[in-house]
């Protein structure tokens, strides 16, 4: 079974984000980066499926040169090879453009299954994998908690609200968004780290596969404001006004 895993590098969870004067992205020199945590569960699930059914695991990531560190971590854990879509302006892409870049870069690849983390820890769109599936006209499912493969078909368990689950049958190839907690991601062994140095990382420029169609004009930190309002009237009138504000303005009721 040949499996592709989308992997994203994101700012570390404890990073203090600062916006430079240009105002189009954060100042990267001030922060550390790490592999997007939801994607580590997708990678682990891909490695377990390969151990059961054979084949290979290919990691695909989009971003600047620093992304190669995240790719190397995935290779050290057991991925067979990787594709790096190089793009210094990656932050200007929306989920549609990102998915289109992945689709173009994977045009010559043959895969049975494509896995993504449920969402990224930075933007949190949770749309790239779904849009990728639509672009390639592939079946897809999200919030996956269990994968069963039998006779060239998938049976997957989706997590719903309120403690409910849903089983869905699908044909291959397919795209799945993996829920965090489906497994326990492994650590890279010393042997794996040494082996990763010899594994292929194919570099592709994003400009070679897709032209950007969106431009980020400005990002900014939301302004913090405080406002105090005194409600007038009898206790009954004040209580009624307070309930209305909690319902329609604060939206907590």
Q: What does the model show?
A:
With 253 residues, the chain is α/β, with parallel strands linked by helices. The chain is 28% helix and 25% strand. It is built from seven helices and eleven strands. The strands form two sheets. It has a nine-stranded mixed β-sheet with strand order 9-8-7-10-6-1-4-5-11, sandwiched between helices. It has a two-stranded antiparallel ribbon with strand order 2-3. Helix 2 crosses helix 5 (190-196). The longest helix has 17 residues, at 37-53. 33% of the residues are buried. The model has no long low-confidence stretch (mean pLDDT 90).
Overall structural class, as computed from helix and strand content, comes to alpha/beta
Largest sheet report = 9 strands, mixed
Specify the number of helices.
7
Number of strands: 11
* Portion of residues within helices: 25-40%
Query: H/E element string?
Result: EEEHEHEHEHEEEEHEHH
The rounded distance between the terminal residues' Cα atoms is 49 Å
Question: What is the residue-mean pLDDT, rounded to a whole number?
Answer: 90
Global morphology: globular
Strand content: 15-25%
Q: pLDDT under 50 segments (min length 5)? A: none
Evaluate the radius of gyration: 22 Å
Strand arrangement, major sheet? 9-8-7-10-6-1-4-5-11
SSE inventory with pairings:
Elements: E1 3-6, E2 9-11, E3 33-35, H1 37-53, E4 57-63, H2 67-77, E5 81-86, H3 95-105, E6 113-117, H4 128-135, E7 140-150, E8 153-159, E9 165-171, E10 174-178, H5 190-196, E11 201-205, H6 206-209, H7 235-248
Parallel strand pairs: 1-4, 1-6, 4-5, 5-11, 6-10, 7-10
Antiparallel strand pairs: 2-3, 7-8, 8-9
Helix pairs in contact: 2-5, 3-4
